[in-house]
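Standup notes
- DV: blocked on the single-chain target, sequence here:
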Amino acid sequence: MNIVVQFGAGNVGRGHVGHIFSKAGYKVIFADIDEQLISLLREKGYYIVRLIGESTREERVENFGIYHINRDREKILEYISKANIVSTAVGPNIYLSLAPIIAEGLALHKAEPVNVIACENFFRSTERLKLEISKYLSPLPRWIGFPNVEIGRIVPPSERGSLKVNVEDFNEFLLERSNFIGPLPNIEGLEFVDNFELFWKRKIYTVNMGHAILGYLGYLKGYINVSDAIKDAWIRESLIGALQEVRALLIKLGLVLSYIDNYLEVLLKRFSNTELGDTVYRVARDPIRKLGPEDRLVGPALECEKNGLPFDNLALGIAGALLFDYKDDESALELQKKIKKEGLESVLRDICNIPLESKLAFRIRENYKILGEIKKNEKS
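- DV (later): unblocked, structure below
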């Protein structure tokens, strides 16, 4: 029996990883700490993936088990020792803390291929997990693979305690071919790619960047849902402009047209999906992380400037992020506190790693003033 141990039974864990592997005949073992969710899934023995596209359909997932990470530790270790895949989808601030239990389970594994993947939404997250695991299991056996992974399915929040997980009816699940150990499994929805970094940038610089533009500019103008924000002529124009800036960058970096043009066309339709109910707050949350130098806005903007390409719309998105002050987002409040105490320059320097004398910094400052006036007018 093929086994996947999936740390995190939330929206991504169940709605993407668990869904794909269960359909392929794998036994999916979820490990989580949510007592209510664990109890519910054990009692019912199934959950529903609600796929939302031009129409909506539902698929039932039954081939799984679920255990508490702490209370059922021995059982989880037993499954890791037999697993083909060990996966995490718990968030970038948490997943490295799983290294000890994963390392302990891998130490019990037979000397046969097993691959560890971190389905976390930032660059080369599996590599970081590998480094952390190596602190507890050294040397790492050669039969353990650590391929980086990129997931491109939009998974908005679902109702807590519900058997249903809402996801968009679109799938992109890319694994780094060179770091995968053993025969490549033939699983619908799973694709192995070379030049992983370029495909990662395609996703983070388009899907995540586009969400950020819609989130920050949408919040600025008082929209609730992403699908409403994209209907705003100014926001849509800014989004398309930013996507065109990224398109030029990706082509410059070596991505062929067939991998980008249709991708962008489909992306605009995905953002416009009213049935997903995705909010600007979700896609804008945690602005400090999203303003990082390798992340969705600053990353492509810096690369555009480096390559002599336009970046005006990306600079607009960065300025929007700097004004995000949603009261229920700790990161947003921390960002505003830093700007108020230390000034905008400190954020550009310390968080974004943008040279203060650069043209990019100049354009961000300009847009920050312009958007600040729009924000005042919207509130008045």
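- Follow-up: The chain has 16 helices and twelve strands.
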